[in-house]
Every structure is written in structure tokens, then in C-alpha cells.
Amino acid sequence: MADHEHPVDAARVRRARAGVIGAEDAGRLSGLLALLGDPVRVRLLYALDLVDELCVGDLALALGITEDAASYGLRMLRTAGLVQTRKDGRVVYYRLADTFPEPLLEHCLRELLRLSELAGAEHPKRGSSRRKLVR
Amino acid sequence: MADHEHPVDAARVRRARAGVIGAEDAGRLSGLLALLGDPVRVRLLYALDLVDELCVGDLALALGITEDAASYGLRMLRTAGLVQTRKDGRVVYYRLADTFPEPLLEHCLRELLRLSELAGAEHPKRGSSRRKLVR
DNA sequence: CGCATATCCGTGCTACCGTACGGATATGGC
DNA sequence: GCCATATCCGTACGGTAGCACGGATATGCG
């Protein structure tokens, strides 16, 4: 591909360069978004938002996924600090983290869901019908 | 891993099962989130939000990425219906789609960015320092 | 008409993600 | 103490995403 050394609109390029989100922030933000960009993890968060807390096996049962998948997804969310655990005997109960901005994120997700319905409906991106997420 | 046939808290499992987001919706939503879960695409959207429209080469220049990467990212966003194009001669100008909920999404991203700063700061997820996003 | 340029497209490669499997660890019950 | 169970962990593997490279296409310019 050509190297394109000559900007077409130098002024706008400068404005964009100056104001665009930095690579550091973009990395963190996209990392978080990528973390949410998984059917299992999104549904885990939704489920935990519904019921205060639930253990790994019950979450797997509720979502119709293997305990491995639930455990893996929960570990990712926990590593990112989005959920926290309470251990009671052999059972580990997961819940949304105290710092979790429930209403905000729920609002965001609801709106993004609406957007996804009209924007990317016909594009079978990852996990739309490829995996059996339920039952 | 054990099969866990006996739910610990059957009531909550039922509640979670009934109210949790469906697999269909989860697929679309996570697909959209995964689409946003890429440093290049997030920054492309930010840049397009700053300046009304910009062509591929200038966007690559502004973000310090190759034109291939810009073209690829823009194609993804266009396929999902998040951006639209205007062709003028050889140059293709990209802008946010008319249906793009600017203030909403911007608000969401800003808040998520804040969340990412305190939640996943110490976890080098994808793209934090792995890729050269700028310069 | 021939050349330069802006963008797209097909292909191949590398890296990584999510899952399954087997085993390890911890805890409770008998 | 011994066994069952809930969860985690290490490993291996299939699938796929994102990028580079070369070429194709289209358009402006002389």
C-alpha cells in the first residue's frame, strides 16, 4: 500500500492528532470493552446484576454453560476488578464489585444493545448464532 | 470438572435463568462491544467524533498507524453500520453514521474509560503496551 | 493515452482467545 | 481419617482476529 506522505486535509489531521484519545487510554478502554465483548461474560454480569450473588456452579447452571466456561469468565472479570468473591466453605459466591457502577453500565449496555439491534443485526459477528449459550 | 447436578440456591438460579439476557441479544451486544474492543477502532471513532470527516490516509496519519490498519478498522466499523462514507474522486471520506448516538456513546465510553483507569490499570490486557498505536 | 495516487481486496502468517480435559487443592460430612 | 464435592489451575488445541504484503481497481492529471 502506498505510503501517503501528503495529508489531504492537514488542519483536520492536526486537530485529530491533538484531541484523539491517547494510545495508553485507548489500550485500557479497549481492553475493558474487549472484556465485555464476550457473550458469556456479558451474561454473567447480567445474571449477577439480577441476583445479588451466586456461586460458580449455579451460574453455569443458570446460563446453560459449562463450569469451566463460567469459572474462566468469572476469573477474567475478577482479574479486571469487575466482580468480587465471598468464600463460604467450599462454595465461592460471586457478586458485582463494590466499585461497579451498576446503573451506569446497565444503562450503557441497554443502549448499546438497542444500537446493536439496528446496526449490526445482519452481521453474524462472534457468538451470535455460532454457540449454544442457553439450554 | 464435576458436573454439579445439584444447585445450591435453586430460587436464585431460576430468577437468573428467567431474567438474564438471552443468547441472541448477548451475541449481538457482545459483538458490538468486541468491535469497540480494539484500540485502533476506538481511536478511529474518537477521531471521527472530533473532526466531522476524514479520509483513510489522513486518519492513518493522525493516529500514527498504517493505512492498512486504518482501512481494515474502518471497514469493520462500516460493516457494522457505525460509520459511513462519502466518495469524492479518489478519496473516500469517513464520518460517523447518521444513526450514530454520539452523545450517548461518548458518555458511555468516557465513563468506561474512567472505570478502566481504576479497575484494570495493572492488568496489561490487549493492546496496552503490546502494540505501537502512536508514532 | 499513460502515469501517479487513494483505496480496496485476496492471501498468508502470527498471536491470542476461549474451551475442554485432567489433575490439584480445599473443605465438609460420615 | 476417608471420601465426596466445589472450585481452581496447567496444558493443549481449534478457531479466529488483525496486520503485512502484493496486486487490482478507479480516478485525477498532464
Overall description:
Two copies of one chain form a homodimer. In chain A, 44% of the residues are buried. Chain A has helices spanning 10-19, 23-36, 39-50, 56-63, 67-79, 102-119, and strands at 54-55, 83-88, 91-96. With 135 residues, chain A is mainly alpha-helical. In chain A, strands 1-3-2 form a three-stranded antiparallel beta sheet. Chain A contains six helices and three strands. Chain A is elongated. Mean pLDDT of chain A is 83; it is low at 121-135. Chains A and B meet through helix 1, helix 2, helix 3, strand 1 and helix 4 of A and helix 1, helix 2, helix 3, strand 1 and helix 4 of B. Chain B binds a DNA duplex (30 and 30 nucleotides) through residues 1-2, 4, 6, 8, 34, 38, 40, 55-57, 66-69, 71-73, 75-76, 89-92, 126.
Topology:
Two copies of one chain form a homodimer.
Chain A: H1 10-19, H2 23-36, H3 39-50, E1 54-55, H4 56-63, H5 67-79, E2 83-88, E3 91-96, H6 102-119
Antiparallel strand pairs in A: 1-3, 2-3
Helix pairs in contact in A: 4-5
Chain B binds a DNA duplex (30 and 30 nucleotides) through α5.
